[in-house]
Amino acid sequence: MTGPPPAVARVRVAVRRALSGLAAGDLVLVACSGGADSLALAGATAFVAPRLGLRAGGVTVDHGLQEGSAERAEDVAAVLRGLGLDPVERIAVAVGTEGGPEGAARTARYAALERAADTHRATVVLLGHTRDDQAETVLLRLARGSGARSLAGMAARSGRYLRPLLDLDRRTVHAAAALMDLRAWADPHNADPAYTRSRVRHDALPALERVLGPGIAEALARTAGLLRDDADALDAWAEEAEERARRGPAALDVAELAGLPRAVRSRVLRRAALAAGCPAGALTARHVFELDRLVTDWRGQAHVDLPGVRRGRRSDGRIVVSADEEGGP
């Protein structure tokens, strides 16, 4: 008996591994844009999930950013239903402006996926990111001067989100979609140089391949995995250190902080700022650096201004992050 083509088999195996820890009867939702990556994921999930005793549904998000987007979203929903996925939902969203066009679309999309998962009580949501997407993410964050956690890229599992295809290259996944007779829609935004990720995909990565040789995407993805292990260890260390340094609900002991390696101390200070209400997207490495100076280079400076109308200050041997009105002049 002849098995599936190699590309299809590899995608199915990746999905099986990702879903193997779920309980019989759990609902899995596939997020599908209509592109080859997410269609291949949907096709593989439709095949694998019932064999694991799981239910499989799908959701497609209409961002409303292009003419005819509603019709395309309905076409994608019809394909998902044709694969046997149930429930299938098409969600129209309003994309704002905060975070730029790519960031705003991402925010709206994930909010829609969260609502769908809550509505249908899905255990996990599957995303179609590939190894090439991982490499692009690492390059984008490297260009922004991000730290180890950001350079660790996308995790195979993050909360209720699973990325089964993260170890597979885009060419294999696209081949699998074609072999499953799933006709993909080519999003023009993916080739639009106005979008940073598009420039990375079509200009930066090919240039690196020409200069440094093949295998750049794989190397970047492998680096992300190594950095993720390091970041996980440092985060665990920081959580323990924060417990030791905490003096009350909103204060950290300076002496305890000063004895930590900077990589750990900066994580503790970032956690404290987030806990005090600083928006994660606005809290930069520069803000954390200035908080760190209150520990290592304090010369009587009154406070550090932080996003979210928050201030960090040093008082009585403690670092406190609080609302501006509580922080004093």
UniProtKB/TrEMBL annotation:
InterPro entries, A to Z: Rossmann-like_a/b/a_fold (IPR014729), TilS/TtcA_N (IPR011063), tRNA_Ile_lys_synt (IPR012094), tRNA_Ile_lys_synt_N (IPR012795), tRNA_Ile_lys_synt_subst-bd (IPR015262)
Keyword check for Cytoplasm: yes
GO molecular function annotations of the record: ATP binding; tRNA(Ile)-lysidine synthase activity
Pfam families found in the cross-reference section: ATP_bind_3, TilS
Localization per Swiss-Prot or TrEMBL: Cytoplasm
Top EC class of this enzyme: ligase
Residue intervals of the tRNA(Ile)-lysidine synthase substrate-binding domain: 252-313
Name of the gene encoding the protein in the UniProt record: tilS
HAMAP family from the UniProt entry: tRNA_Ile_lys_synt
Record's keyword terms, sorted: ATP-binding, Cytoplasm, Ligase, Nucleotide-binding, tRNA processing
Ranges where the tRNA(Ile)-lysidine/2-thiocytidine synthase N-terminal domain occurs: 28-202
Enzyme Commission (EC) number: 6.3.4.19
Sequence positions that bind ATP: S33, G34, G35, A36, D37, S38
One record GO biological process: tRNA modification
Family, per entry: Belongs to the tRNA(Ile)-lysidine synthase family.
PANTHER family: TRNA(ILE)-LYSIDINE SYNTHASE-RELATED
Organism name: Actinorugispora endophytica
Job of this protein: Ligates lysine onto the cytidine present at position 34 of the AUA codon-specific tRNA(Ile) that contains the anticodon CAU, in an ATP-dependent manner. Cytidine is converted to lysidine, thus changing the amino acid specificity of the tRNA from methionine to isoleucine.
KW ATP-binding (keyword) present: yes
Protein name: tRNA(Ile)-lysidine synthase
UniProt GO cellular component terms: cytoplasm
Catalysed reactions listed for this entry: cytidine(34) in tRNA(Ile2) + L-lysine + ATP = lysidine(34) in tRNA(Ile2) + AMP + diphosphate + H(+)
UniProt remark on domains: The N-terminal region contains the highly conserved SGGXDS motif, predicted to be a P-loop motif involved in ATP binding.
